[in-house]
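Quick question about two entries, pasted in order.
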Amino acid sequence: MEELVRQIKAFEEQAGVMEPDAARRRELLSAVNDYTENFLETLPDRPAYINNDEMGRGIYQSPISEQGMAVEEALRIYKENVDDQGLSPVSGKFFGYIPPCSMYYSALGDYMAAIMDEFTGDFSSCPGAVRMEYQLIKWMADLVGYSPDAAKGVLASGGSIATLTCIVTAREAHGLKARDYEKAVVYYTRFTHHCIDKALHIAGMTDCVKREVATDAQFRLDPAALAEAIDNDRARGLDPWLVTGSAGTTDLGNVDQLDKISVVAKENGLWFHVDAAYGGFFILSDLVRDKFTGIALSDSVVMNPHKGLHTPFGLGAAIVRDGEQLYKAHFYTANYMQDTFFDKEDLSPADVSPELTRHFRALRLWLPLKLIGVAPFRAMLSEKLLLTRYVYARFKSLPGFEVGPEPELSILVFRYTDVEGDVNEFNRKLIEAIRRDGAIFITSTLIDNDYMLRFAILSYRTHIDTVDLAIDVIRREVNKLLTA
């Protein structure tokens, strides 16, 4: 026994480094804080994209080993191989994809959540943390017009998992079994986010019928075409099941006529799901709130706080109007969980989610909302809407540029057309030139086979001087290509 105790004590001493004392914590925190402060102070002058041929290979040159290293050396490796290359999504000059831009307030919430590491899978483990999450869900449910008392939801790792959660709920609510999938019909448009297809595949529903519905002149799902497609499918002996609408598409930022779609869905007994991952929080702005009329009549909605509310990556919300359906689709238990049923005043997130073990995500959103309130978010989103209209007007007035449809939210598309030869090829070269330059970052998309440059404005660090700079960079790169 004495030898066993000696071995235990020896291993305890070796492992003791895992629990740094106060002095060591101050040393580490000081080094990391100095690094992040320098990053934030120099961010306005950093490019939005850094070309680096090494592409992080230096990470492999410092293998995981038995012995640790100084924090300064670890930060050097990080800077050279992560920080100093690729995209800088937190830059105000990043206009690609749907720009995230995590706030310092959110980072403080994540820091606290990582230190305390509250378990939020079941209610009894940390009721306050679970109620914090449900408070946020109820707030979002109220935003879209659901009854906060009847609706239920969960904070997921992003829009894809939130969408999967809603798809599974819709499947179970419709009573679909594997034998039914080949006749079950899903309706969407060519602008629907690919996470819908992916969720169907992961949910085992690859064999369901996927019907692409025609769009109107504003590139929105055409409700009349939807109704006709449903009638045709029923005549073929198929089972119309799900229709997905968009409250802000990734390509164009357009918002479907959610009120009219909801009428068609209700008349035909379809589950109506709305992808509001990008656009949902624009409902906070008086400038566009009317565009979301009808979202309250949907059966489920996905919203991503890590987009419109600027938390760090990894925060999406799945909300179901009839929360009982969410619970029925996801509740499971096991013998080893029998002790989690004490003090059960509310549902556990694991009861309404695919996850059991999960990060304490709520704090990254709750803390900034409590520290600064909703008003700054409302103003920020309104500013982005007006900035987008400003950029659209600028490009519309510039010689040689062609703009796409008038933006509904904060995404616009354009291209340069005053060229000899293939316009698509010229704009491909233009996007590559902009990427090599790196000062700003934008992306591209295809609209009716036209190669369009895509400009997405959402970062709270993007302001009128930022977009003016971006327009200057784009014009400069056009001139370079024209004179090459």
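Here is the second entry:
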Amino acid sequence: MSTVGIVSVAQRMLNVRALVCDVDGVLTDGRLNYLGDQEIKSFSVLDGFGISLAKQAGWNVALLTARGGVAVERRARELGVELETGQRSKGPAFAAICARWNVPLENVAYMGDDWLDLPAMLQAGLAATVPNAAAAVRQRAHWLANVQGGAGAVRELVEAVLGAQGKLDALLAQYLRGEGA
């Protein structure tokens, strides 16, 4: 078997300059909770801090979801990231986000958990997923988190990539000095 053209996960991590994430099942546990007519979503502060670290490292970050909603809009505002909602065709939407940023697809990590995410994952330089993702998604991902969606998987991805890039220790040092963002 030839290894020409095969890119290692470590090399893919070195190239990452931006992150696009699905919401339901990645930033949340994927459950839909309703209180009357209101939809309630739970987000992990671990993921929020991971996104903050990615932004401190100079990355562009966006959320790309087929479902929108007030809770998702609020979370995107709190995190200061772009939000694309109502996108069932995630491949073209992902490519459009990257083009708007002027960041090549191979320099973007995408984290998703279900079949709708596959077109974006197949274009991304680093395709990541969570253990509770659909089997077809886990099979096509370059990297698999140890924790479930909604429990800090995005934070784990960001720290893994920043660690591979040699940037994680410098960010941690800022916080140890009390200079963190």
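Reply: Strands lie at 18-21, 33-35, 38-40, 60-64, 82-84, 108-111, 126-129, 143-144. The two ends are 47 Å apart (CA to CA). Hope that helps.
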